[in-house]
Amino acid sequence: MELNKEQKIIGLRVLNDNIIWLWKNNKSIAVIDPAISQPVIKYIKSNDLNLEAILQTHHHSDHIGGTEELIKEWPNVKVIASAKEKDRIPFQNLSVKDGDNLIILNQEVQVIEVIGHTKSHIAFYLKNKNPVLFIGDTLFSAGCGRVFEGTYRQMFNSLKRIKKLPKNTLIYCAHEYTKNNLEWALAQEPTNNNLKIKLREVEGKIASKELTIPCKLADEMRINLFLRAKNLEEFTFLRANKDLWV
Ligand SMILES: [Zn+2]
């Protein structure tokens, strides 16, 4: 399946650096990790759309903060979250696990568990000719999520799963951290030309108030030091080093 012409993914920049993703197909829409509700409600109502589903990658408040307000507006909405998070995402009404296949907006979506940032973080993978991955806080452009609840090994294995996806996968992460990540990466590898070129490109986008996301997996394989880490030791060193970088 290909994303047809009626489909669009729109990013709403909210709070300090969160991005709420709105995935639209004709008159239906799904929202991924609504940090807050107001801009989402405004977008849906002003475009006369129906909210079909809310996709939650994990329980952090800057990902679920707007969900209850959205449920009040659209009581029949599907709230899709990890079955392991019934306590921390109590308003979920469609509980999923790794490997589940769902139909959302008439598209096949696969649930991929990618733990490390939290103990039950999931991602949503749209199986198309032009695949899409809603990855939450597991991977960022030129970076990866902090290891809060899991182990470095779990996070390293989660990144390995992402690397196996088709290289043309477009990755939609939940934070605009790209510039900071690239500056950190350049401090590690000051002569890396791919990083320099990417930083210039990202600075241009920021100057013209564009999002730097989505990013393509093939590009991340070149510039993301965490994806390029050859083994667990190297990954652990990089992640611990990045934690000390502001
Ligand atoms: Zn988080």
Helix and strand arrangement:
Blueprint: E1 7-14, E2 18-25, E3 28-32, H1 38-46, E4 50-55, H2 61-64, H3 67-73, E5 78-82, E6 94-96, E7 101-104, E8 107-113, E9 122-126, E10 132-136, E11 139-140, E12 143-144, H4 152-163, E13 170-173, H5 178-188, H6 193-207, E14 215-216, H7 217-223, H8 225-228, H9 232-243
Parallel strand pairs: 3-4, 4-5, 5-6, 10-13
Antiparallel strand pairs: 1-2, 2-3, 7-8, 8-9, 9-10, 11-12, 13-14
Zinc ion (ZN) binds at residues 58, 60, 117, 137.
Summarize this structure as a short list of keywords or feature phrases.
Metallo-beta-lactamase, Chain A, binds zinc ion, 9 helices, six-stranded mixed sheet, alpha/beta, 246 residues, 27% strand
Report on the structure:
With 246 residues, the protein is an alpha/beta fold. The longest helix is centred in the last third of the chain and has 15 residues. Strands 1-2-3-4-5-6 form a 6-stranded mixed sheet, covered by helices on one side. A 6-stranded mixed sheet has the order 7-8-9-10-13-14. The protein has a two-stranded antiparallel ribbon with strand order 11-12. The model has no long low-confidence stretch (mean pLDDT 96). It has one domain: Metallo-beta-lactamase, Chain A (4-Layer Sandwich), CATH 3.60.15.10. It starts with 6 loop residues before the first strand and ends with a helix. The chain contains 9 helices and 14 strands. Bound molecules: zinc ion. Zinc ion binds next to loops.
